[in-house]
Fold each of these.
Amino acid sequence: MDFAPTSAPRKAASTKIVIAGGFGVGKTTLVGAVSEIMPLRTEALVTNESEHVDDLAATPSKTTTTVAMDFGRLTLAEDLVLYLFGTPGQRRFWFMWDDLCRGAIGAIVLVDTNRLDESFSPLDYFESKGLPFIVAVNQFDGTREYELDEVASALALPAEVPIIRIDARSRESAKRALVRVTEYALLRLTQSLPVNAT
Amino acid sequence: MVPDDARGPDEPAATARFVRPYTITAGRTKAAVDLPLEATLRLRPHDPSTDEDLAAGALRVLDLCDQRSVAEVSALASMPIGVVRVLLGDLVQQGLVRVQATITESSSKDERIELIERTLRGLRTY
């Protein structure tokens, strides 16, 4: 008898999901809640070639600064690891976002309803790049609870973008957010939804 | 709007460095191969006696990299991502290290779907 393999052998692989949002909104908390390792910090170098153009005498060499990113790791199977990367907040480090988002399954934009405006830039960025994203409203103690559709409308979210409530400290809650963004990314791929929701 | 340099408590300060990190790569800043942050490295079987020929930085990265991602190697070696990429790229070209699959720009739609489905199955039972 001939047995044809039903599928090609699985290749060992790794994937990633990006966690974005404003300062102190809970990105590293979320990563830490589900990661199997303590979140690690990696650094990239930024050369400030343009910052001292009028001060050359005082700066004999270009200054180099570092930008840090926290990340965590989830071993999902013997041959599959998922990494979660928190985005650096400062806008001048957005070149790092291209690196972070290249090949990502999708992104979770963490939102603090007291500081909605801080999520505008990440939302614009992911929309322009066509990266599937969901919005997760992190519930802080003692803050007024808004209806999700109120938040969605304040953020001018396209109708198809999922929006959920989250407690970034809770493993189960963080896991649900990861499942949701992965489901949405899959749906976008299999249904060939428009890349740019404009 | 928040000014560009505003930082919250979870945002480390950008600090000036006094060591020039790319001296370790002889000034090279471009890696020889494409190395996504999440890509997992695997050691290839090789004769360990040849490791003596490697520079200290390359050796450190070689020791750390098996079954770890580019980002993890960077964090554990305390070397910036760009430096680690150059060193790992060299090791890949020298045949000492290989890179496992990730989603890349050249992945087909089917490959993407397969990897995302696997991730979803793994997450649901995580």
Amino acid sequence: MHDIYQFVSGPLARLAFTVFVIGSLYRLVQMFVLVYRKEKFIFSFMSWKYSLRSIFHWIIPFAAVNMQQQPIMTLVTFTFHICLLVTPVFLLSHAVLWEERWNIRLWSLPDQLSDIMTLAVIGCCFFFWGRRIKLPEVRYLTFASDYALLGMVAAPFVTGLIAYHQWIDYPFFMILHILSGEILLMAVPFTRLSHMLFWPFTRAYMGSEFGNVRHARDW
Amino acid sequence: MNEPVKKVAEIIPDEGIDAGLARLTEDRIENTILRVLNGETGARLKVYVETCIHCGLCSEGCHYYLSYDKDPRYSPAGKVKQTLWEMIRKKGRVDKAFMRQAVVIAATQCNMCKRCAMYCPFGIDVAYLMSVVRRITHLLGLTPQYIQATAHSHSVNMNQMWIKEDEWPDTLQWQEDEARSEIPHLRIPLEKEGADIMYSVIGPEPKFQAQLIYQAAVIMNVAGVNWTMPATPGWDNSDMAMFTGDNELMGRIKRVHFETAGRLKVKKIVMGECGHAFRSVYDMGNRWLGWKMPPIPVFHAIEFYYDMIREGRIRIAQKYAEPVTFHDPCNVVRGRGLHEKARYVVNAMCDTLIEMHPNREHNYCCCAGGGVINCGPPYKMVRIDGNRIKAEQLFAVKARGARTLIAPCHNCHSGLEDINHYYGLEMNIKFIGDILYQVMKKP
Amino acid sequence: MADTIAWDWQTGEKSIPVGNSNSRFEWVEEPYVSYDGERVASIVNIAEGEFTVCVNGQTWENPFEKIWHLRFTADDRLTALVSDAGEWTLAVDGVSWENRFGYVWNPLFSQDGRSIAVSFQQDRQYGMALNDVPWEETYGNLTDPVLSPDGNHTAASVQVIPTGEVEIRKFQQGTISAAKDGVVWDRPFVNVWRKAMNLNGDLAAEVRLTLYDYTIAVNGSPWEKTFGGVWEPIFHPISGAVIAPVRVKGKWYLAEEGRLLWSTPFDQLWHPVVSPDGKCIVAIVATGFGKWTVAVDGRAWRHVFSDFVTDMTFSSDSRKIAVIVKDKERWSIAVQGTAWNNTFDMIWKPVFSPDGAHVAAKVERGGKYTMALDDRLWRQDCEAAWDPLFSPDGTRLLVKTIEDGTYFRRVIPVGEFG
């Protein structure tokens, strides 16, 4: 067990971060090269002003009409994304790791808040799962891979919660937690989770087309 | 769990599609799909397909989805699932039945209005994805008969109504004669090189609605602008090739249009109240030819009327009394942001404007644009049933007092007329020009 | 162009009042001026349904029910499309052609002005008439008419197989061909578009073999190779080869007889022109999206223009090219790749002096017209103006304008500019 722990927390962690960073960069560069090669015209319509205008309207809760029409989804999705991104970075136990491994000092979340945020992520995943099952328009678009992605996102939080509270078999769940986190990290550039990378660009492009050319709102 | 792509229950016979399918082999389908996916598309398609998280939030953006009882097959992403996702997943190895369904979805169940692009949190442009499907079906020879015939008309005559070269100036001279009984010295100046404005229209105007040319001539003459119309092909700004996926022909039509304006040395092109034509000259055909923006600026009629009223060149004698509502056409509102200028014009002309809801960029589509109405009679009910939501929206505004519906777009007009009759709305549908001509001060 | 040596290059200024004609007629349409500048003409209305043409204050002898498309030929005959008793024809200096038609339109003039062709419709059949001689064969439709530069031949795309509007399969099997002097090619195509003719009367045209395969057909025979698109062909005046822009994998190249002539791919390439001495070929190109310029033998000028490049002209010694450019919404002229500093609201086709040393053009700013020569402006702002023309020795410019209701023909020394 110890060897496995050493492996997942050492070389595999380094590999996961490397794959995440290099993979993400690769995907972004690949996208830019593709635009350059085949759709160069896109560059000539890009505008900082309208890119940011669009991005801001879509990162502020309820700023877009569709968010107002789907208030519960809006609340859940904002809660989910905020907790998903903030918790792993500012969790106290992770903060210790950042400092130990890379000598980076970060502010950390109070444990109780981390627990709530972790539960929120898990809860949101349940919500999304229920949405996929219950709503016909989402069910119609859902593939097995969509459930797998939800599972991949939920896994590090579920295992992390179990491991942190040491409810059952701490070492096993700790390894599972690290492993699932690493899998998630490595999956980002190569699955639909890559919307994390591409979202600002699709938004910026649509924002620029709507703002710069069409003189209309896109929210 | 994922639901299989359902087959559309009723198959509407269409000579274009059926004869096209009969000529196809699965190898040709595969090669053509791969040629478009690998050769003609780029980062947009790749990123849109790989980024879509299958959340279904685009659904509420689509009037077909809303009208067909929220049937998920009509949601924007649902249409992509039944077409492009499957083509990509199977690496182009799809069968004829699948392609039949794909062309029906892309050509008749999407107006390319881009409303859904405002509902997708990522801004994925499903209209663009549907245009990729149409491109594939064009290359496979599967385009529906009526719109293909229209593209043929464009290819021969450079207009969408098989109007022959003599019929165009002849019609203008006839309208000029007619209008002289009202304004004796009125002119429709043909081929006047160096005029400020070239006025261009779409094929149906000389073919069926010559009174619109009459009205425009009166408006131009009263406003005292230095204008002209070409007597050669290039007068028609419409472009159904843009909607069939025949990009090469789209470019050819637009080249003729812009070079005609260039030959006449005009400073701008003012076009009649047409939406898709605006799209074709403003951000589709021009781009295919390499022009970032139109080489000669193009002004939709709304903008022209706005300028004329603001500058006091057109004055209103007596405002239109019947309460009106205003339909925002996708191609000049989401496509050009003319919604506020349109309201300025409507308020200047009419006593009472009652807004329909939603409005402006969020207005529901007419369900005729994007080439759908041009697919002809076989699909009439697809778009009338597919736009029940529009009828509901109009009934609601009618209940609040609106009696006249202003729609500054030809496709919108035709689509809304069908909605009007079928659902028994009994509203008067008018172009801005109809009312402006009626209420303006004339000498 | 007629021989300009015989023109009056001595009289500094001549004038003809045009403003007062308003009181003589119901209305006066926009004026046209002869190339030599000696005559100014307008279509005028004299009574309801009665029109004539007023030239230097004199009206044509016979009025017509309708008159439109007033133009001078290069040899300064005044032509118009005229109608009487519901029939249409062309009138030259007030005298109608013998032949009458249901409708006539699109008069085409040979370079020397000697030949005039029109498209005509008679009883729903279409053809062309050259110098009052109509084609013997007529067709169900006619588009893209052309007159050979020497004025000896006419050609147009014609419908050879009657087809219903929605008969798409029949259409795609080919219903259109080209007719030269009324005689049709021996095979149909899906489409036949822009054409070129040489001095031997050979006819080349853009054709579409299917909805997807484009190529050039010469005298009815298509090139062996097909392309994703083609633009207008030209005949090389020396070699006789047919040259046309072709589209391969989304990029444009210049091709000769079906083989790529220029290896450089462009985002756009059209209006190819061979220099007068036949030594180089130039074309208007886009080197990238929204980057327009001119390419000489496949090499693009260094400067690109964002909006539009049009009306390319060679100096007669083939050494210089001038072209209209529109950059950031302003119009100007570029000579040998360098744009003038002056920009305008509109600009007309540049004109070279015979020795190629000077370039002049009619320009418009703030609703007034004037002349520009080598990026220098003439002092006078005018209500109307026509293209300038250089004297044969290149030292003087013929300037035709209207100022305060008077037409002026002026001969101005080139040194007077700027």
